[in-house]
Amino acid sequence: MKLRPLSVAGAWEATPQQHGDPRGLFLEWYRFDRLSEAVGHPLWLAQGNLSVSSRDVVRGIHFADVPPGQAKYVTCVRGAVLDVVVDLRVGSPTFGRWEGVRLDDVDRRAVYLAEGLGHGFCALTDDATLTYLCSTTYNPSAEHAVHPLDEELGIDWPAAVPQLSARDAAAPTLAQARAAGLLPAYDTCQRYAETLAAAANSTDA
């Protein structure tokens, strides 16, 4: 597995090595040790999610309060999506920046995003199926969203007419979310990551 840091700090692209023969193929789509080495601490697994979306569906941009936030490891097991990571951490050098990675059932890449980062995707095919490994369980009172079509973010969604949920269509813009105090602080996210690293080191010791 090859890990490549994205332009948004705290996000990584994972590309597995696939082993195929006439019977089919085999690959490691998640490696605890490789990811931990790159990120600086393990991804604690608390919940697994699966979503199925029709073509042109856009989901996001979703994020959770930090601490504890919700780190995610996302891959596409059927079809294809443009997976998008957005830096929503106020005070971050890359605040407001986004990067997209194509996830599909050909290259079978995955994306890891740390606590405090926003996540969304656009389905490029019908029945696009994503699986998520999450560091914390779902807590609706701590979950938030930023409007995926916000002009300030300027995300180039590959959909002629993006299909949004009612929740995402009603989400605030980046500026509105910041003014309302909903966005995580970069320093808080950094300190929380340090506590995760410290906890992992004490467990190893």
From TrEMBL:
Belongs to the dTDP-4-dehydrorhamnose 3,5-epimerase family. InterPro entries: RmlC-like, RmlC-like_jellyroll, RmlC_Cupin_sf. It holds the Pfam family dTDP_sugar_isom. This is dTDP-4-dehydrorhamnose 3,5-epimerase. It comes from Micromonospora lutea.
